[in-house]
Known about the structure:
- This protein is mainly α.
- It has helices spanning 7-32, 41-50, 52-78, 86-117, 125-157, 162-180, 192-217.
- The termini are close together.
Amino acid sequence: MTDSNPRPRLAGVLLLTSLLAMITGAAIVVPSGLTLNSADPAAALAAVGEQFELHLTELALDVLGWLALTAVGLVMSAGSAEAPRPHLVTLSGGLLAAAGLAGLLHDAGNLALTQLAADPAAPAAASVAWAVLLTAKWAVNLAGLLWVAATAAAAAGIPMPAGLRIAGAVAAISGLAAVALPWTTGTGGPTAALEQLGYVLHLPIMLWYGVLGWRYLRGR
């Protein structure tokens, strides 16, 4: 990387911003009980109503994280011609941007839930909340699947040491397990504990991109 090509540095800043925002948001959600399980919409509405400011804070961080992920995907795609395997880098960037957009769709559902929580006793509020939560949950599952695919393509196409390439493949497998979890729960949907396990399984992908972002910043 040289000063005449600031694109890698920008990608590094965006990746680290996304990592920090998402981890901070998860650190708020898990201990506060704001995972908002679609199996119990009344409880989700109550949790948001009781911790409205905290919910909005976490939501803002999540939006920042997915926006940064979308932006870095576009930056990676724009610079793909400079890579030895440009088609894989373009694919990775496109999938990463798509993952960010799906994540923003998830956040839009959670934002809609804040309006429902303002009047949880309104007619059909619980039913509408259930539909909103279910849509939001599957949107973030789609985001996770796209993120896994982007990681696999990035590990194969972006120049990096062999150890980091292998770590990317392992992280993608871990993320794929997280994506598969909701499919194992049938019509009941995942429990809060299972959703938290999904966060843990996605963590290797987030950390891997954090390392990649740091390497971009260091010009390596």
